[in-house]
Model the fold of this input.
Amino acid sequence: MSGGGSLIERDAAVIAANQKLRFFPASIVSASGSEVVDATGRRLLDLSAAWGANAVGHAHPKVVEAIRTASADGAGASVLSATNPRAVDLAERLLELVPAPAPAAGGFGSADRRVLLGHAGTDANHSALAAARAATGRRRVIAFHGGYHGGFGSAQAVSGVFVDGGLAGDPESALLDYPAASGDPVRDAASLERVFAAIAAEFAAGDVAAVIVESHQSDGGIVVPPDGFLRGLAARARAAGALIVCDEVKVGLGRTGLLHGFAHEGVLPDLVTFGKALGGGLPLSAVVGPAEVLDIAPASALLTTAGNAIAAASGRAVLDVIESEGLVAAAAERGEHLRRLLGEAAAGAPEIHDVRGRGLSLGIELRVGSTDPSAAPGAGDADFAKRVIYRTWQLGAICYLVRDNVIELTPPLALTAAQGERAVELIAAAIADVRRGAVSDAEIELYRGW
Done:
């Protein structure tokens, strides 16, 4: 190794801050399953799985073997100007796993479908929106406040988390409110009525190419919509001749307790995007959709190494592991277990304002100020939450924040019952410690996250 000092010091000296979102001085030098080892030799429980990217666990033997074999075979760098069997195998398997919607009258949705491979959710969503615009001949896109669809470019420009934070949005898009389930049928019905009225107004001009939406929002604060939101949205989009793009990058492939997040409402989107978990830790993404959309503009989504055999082999292994090890059902079971444990922990931690989500996509909202459920979180809530995840890391677990004051839990889908119990114990201890004054301003000064 070159350079002197600790790994954290070396990182600070050479890695650009533009690509860092740090909450504490974390490092990972090795990992296995749901645990990681940092540069100091500490073993930590991983409750993030790299924002969900290591959904089947770190260094899964079947994924490791698939990568090793593909690397040794050297079967091509991409599908750009030559194909390779591993990319085709992955695409065929994705088409088997993603159900096709019935053709829309006068619209899209034939049984003939394609897969577009990429490196990350950002390029998958960019490519999906570009294809929708090309296929419909329209330009406008509807997205939602609190949505996250990419870290740069056109996908970032329709991501509510960035636009709401001050980034310039796509001038040809509209951001609408994303409804949150309240548990009150009357309130939920009124919320849906407002959202659908806003959507109808946007569709009125007949110029909307696509609606891009998450089946539940992750980075927006783990927001689960009322039942009927996706169904109503899809029906209205189809009636308007617009395509529904369902972003499954973070909540797909078993994380919500169903293979696809959109399956919670029985919706079949026109285009589905995948990333994160699909690569098993390697850069891999995919768009699945109708041929008349994904074939319409040949050579318009060019990435020199997209569809490379190594990443494709890893992706196919990930899909096989999810199925063979029953990880969809495991996520549902462990998610219920965690919610019960967190509910019990809340009895001794009044700062736990809410626990929500689906499967192993969970959010713990912390409040130290107003207890009014309709009030927006305050600066004190966000500050307290930052200290809690910093203290959790000090105690031995990795988790991150979304939407200022919500701890996101997206651990590997094979998290054990014992690890779940340990996770809640550590988070509860961290909350108590911060309440007593642990974690100084100086400790978190460099690690403000979003």
Remarks:
- The chain has a mean pLDDT of 93.
- Residues 67-324 form a domain with the Aspartate Aminotransferase; domain 2 fold (CATH 3.40.640.10).
- The chain has two domains: 7-56+326-444, 67-324.
